[in-house]
Amino acid sequence: MYERVLCVVPFVGAGTPDDPRRPAYVPLPPSPGVLPSRDGIVAFSFQESDDGKLALVELVAYNREAFNDLLADTRPDVKVFIKGKHKRDDIEKEFKKHKKDLNLDSFATVAP
Predict the structure, then answer these.
(1) Does residue 61 contact residue 3 with C-beta atoms inside 8 Å?
(2) Does some domain include residue 111?
(3) Contacts of 11 by beta carbon, 8 Å cutoff, 6+ apart
(4) Measuring CA to CA, how many Å separate 50 from each of 56, 76, 96, 100, 105?
(5) Whether 109 contacts 44, CB under 8 Å
(6) I need a labelling partner for 48 at 20 to 30 A (CA). Which of 21, 25, 26, 84 fits?
(7) Cβ of 26: how many Cβ atoms within 10 Å?
(8) 8: exposed, middle or buried (C-beta count within 10 Å: 0-12, 13-18, 19+)?
(9) What are the pLDDT digits (tens) for 14-57?
(10) How many structural domains comprise the chain?
């Protein structure tokens, strides 16, 4: 029913109310009274890396096309894993490079 990716991405945003600091590819909150689109990312959870420079993120969407920009990102600090395609051990190994006590079970992203 849902597509999920786990990724390591840098933080973006100026840290202001109009541009909050957040992981790259995480959508801004919708404006009051506006329903979020079902075409994009519908849920996410993240943890900050030990050095505070990167985010370890789970993104959820109804279709994989919502991740096209992320999947095409070739920056060296962006790593993407598709849940169900990549091995759990490979994902944990990469994530633990950035957060030594990480457990993938702590990503309990609930989608609408």
Answers:
(1) yes
(2) no
(3) 21, 22, 23, 24, 53, 54, 55
(4) 10, 18, 10, 8, 18
(5) yes
(6) 84
(7) 19
(8) buried
(9) 999 888 999 999 988 777 887 777 889 999 999 999 999 999 99
(10) 1
Whether residue 13 lies inside any domain: the answer is yes
Tell me whether residue 89 is in a domain.
yes
* Total Cβ atoms within 10 A of residue 35: 6
Q: Please report, for the chain, how many H helices and E strands are present, in that order.
A: 2, 5
- Backbone phi, psi, residue 41, to 5°: -75, 130
What does the pLDDT look like over 73-102, one tens digit per residue?
999 999 999 999 999 999 999 999 999 999
Q: Where are the alpha helices (DSSP H) in 31-103?
A: 68-72, 88-96
Q: Domain of residue 61: give its range.
A: 3-106
Given the structure tokens 């920056």, which residue do they identify? 75
Is residue 112 assigned to a domain?
no
CA distance linking residue 51 with residue 30, whole number of Å: 29
Amino acid at the residue 108 = A
Instruction: Please indicate, yes or no, whether the overall pTM of this predicted structure exceeds 0.85.
Output: yes
